[in-house]
Amino acid sequence: MSNPLLSAFHTPFTTAPFTEISPNHFQPAFIAAIAAAKKEIEAIKTLPLPSFENTVEALEKSGKHLSVISSIFFNLNSAETNDEIQKLAREISPLLTDYANDILLDQELFQRISQVFEQRAQLSLSPEQTTLLEKTYKSFVRNGAQLGESDAATLRKLDQELAQLSLQFGEHVLAETNKFVHFVDQVTELEGLPQGALEAAAQLAAEKGQEGQWAFTLDYPSYIPFVTYADNRELRKTIALAAGAKSFQNNEFDNQQNVLNIVKLRHQRANLLGYKTHAHFVLEERMAKTPENVGTFLEDLLSKALPAAKKEFE
Q: Which of 145, 187, 215, 303 could form a disulfide with 205 if both were Cys (CB 3.0 to 4.6 A apart)?
């Protein structure tokens, strides 16, 4: 039987043929797509003198099939996951992390990009091409292309650990979200809720074997209307506290240690790349630029917003 992920999608608007895709299709598809993407990278490196078209633009166009498969898989893992898909995610994530590092730490490829970057003033590039060139060059620099061999190996190890921790964090949050359900048996307790939200809650309760009741979960289509419109303060409190306590209950899905480990690894990674903190690394590419600017902005916002907030509270 052919793997639908490795063929063209003959569907309206070339959408993913979900009815034909099984979990066992994903791992071989990822392995094949990664191998194909690596061949595209190797082809770039064999070309003559580097140019914007044969290096930067070619790199941007590489791995498109892999991106499609990744989008399908990780959307499923977020929206319609199960134990088998989560197990696959833990196996596939290291493959993708290695693939990304193989590109960003490829010295031969980086040298080609550097040559194009150094000649950018003479290339008559459009604003869009200039932006792509600058972002490509900076993404390599910001992710270890200028590190020595030993530090590059350390970076790979940190990235692998971060990828696994991030997956585990998400799995825990999803499990806590799916575990919670609150039933209400009196419609008078649900005043303020739009009719559509009431109908959805009644349908959900029936699906869970509680016909004639209303069920509410921490999924956004259920949670947001409830905490926004329900008049019953105590019920809003119950739902809001449950949402805030996800993966913070010292149980099998607790994320407190995961958060601490992620913060530590991000700090180590930022230091390895020459940044004071992870915040300095992230903000370099944002409008604020530095944590100090963020602090100044927040203090200024506080001084202007606090009087208005006090007035509203009164």
A: 215
Q: Which of 249, 75, 91, 234 is nearest to 179 (CA)?
A: 249
Q: Apex CA 54: angle with CA 50 and CA 56, to 5°?
A: 85
Distances (CA, A) of 254 to 93, 168, 214, 246: 21, 10, 28, 8
What type of residue sits at position 255?
N
Token pair, residue 281, equals 């690394």
Distance CA 17, CA 267 (A): 41
* Successive 10-residue mean pLDDT values, the chain, 314 residues: 90 93 96 97 94 97 96 91 91 95 96 96 95 96 94 96 95 93 95 96 96 95 95 96 95 97 98 96 95 96 95 95
Show the tokens assigned to 79: 């929206």
Rounded Cα distance between 48 and 277, Å, is 40
**Which residues 6+ apart lie within 8 Å of 29 measured at CB?**
3, 5, 6, 69
Find where tokens 């009087």 sit. Answer: 307
- Which residue's structure tokens are 């892999």? 66
Q: pTM score, two decimals?
A: 0.86
Full 3-state SS string of 147-208: CCHHHHHHHHHHHHHHHHHHHHHHHHHHHHHHHCCEEECCHHHHCCCCHHHHHHHHHHHHHC
Q: How far apart are CA 263 and CA 259, in angstroms?
A: 6
CB-CB neighbours of 110 under 10 Å: 20
Q: What is the pLDDT of residue 80?
A: 84
